[in-house]
Amino acid sequence: MDTINDFGFKQRKYMPVFPKANxxxxxxxxxxPCEDDExxxxxxxxxxxxxxxxxxxxxxxxxxxLVHIAVDSFIYYGKGDITxxxxxxxxxxxxxxxxxxxxxxxxxxxxxxxVAVFEFLSDATAHQDRTEKVDVYxxxxxxxxxxxxxxxxxxxxxxxxxxxxxxxxxxxxEPDAEGGLFSEALNLYFRWEEQxxxxxxxxxxxxxxxxxxxxxxxxxxxxxxxEARAEKEAQxxxxxEARAEKEAQxxxxxEKLAATEAQxxxxxExxxxxxxAQLVNFQRQ
Length: 285
Description:
Low-confidence stretches: none
Helix content: 40-55%
Number of strands: 12
CATH topology: tt1808, chain A
CATH architecture: Alpha-Beta Complex
Shape: rod-shaped
Largest sheet: 6 strands, mixed
Number of domains: 1
CATH class: Alpha Beta
Radius of gyration: 35 Å
Order of helices and strands: HHEEEEEHEHHEEEEEEH
Mean pLDDT: 91
Number of helices: 6
Strand content: 15-25%
Structural class: alpha+beta
């Protein structure tokens, strides 16, 4: 099976379908700050998680030009009110142009809100992430789904998600037996895995059929493995062709030898017959 091409087929099959937003791509609006003094990630564990998941999202949604993926940038959701502002670790917006990149995201200008938001728990923000942000994201901003996850392996595992129901109520998602959650908005399944060499509890996305979405490094390894397999197959084919050619030459040499031997026997028999005839003539004289 061609793993890379097979994934491309599944990627197109499971990609969500959504309308184009009715707003305008907006890079920056004067008067709305786009920076603060906070670092992008609270710890190396958070940085590893954010960078890995953002990379996977960007690679997966690269085939659709109407998917905007942002990392630790502001979302402004109240025109004229700069206090109505949040900066999720990762958020995804459907229906808006991927490029150009924005300094912040303005929901009223773009005519869209994120479909999914991800926050990774830190000591400073964990309480907010579990409580007030649920209402802010799902009710105030109109996000469809909100997820929180604890990436630091030495801390207790915590992966939770909430979604809006059709009446705009908030429902917490039920995890499966493995602690995973399915995102209806993204049509992706999420489950964490323990990476003991980095001490990170890494949240990873999967296609609905369980196929993992690889990181750029994993994808490079897959390509290298595919190239190595192709090279090995070419070498095996070349060796098989050489063996077949050698066998064909052996058969051809054997056939020539057999023909030569048959001719030799025929010539010997003819010579013997000639000598017999001469002997008979000699005896008659």
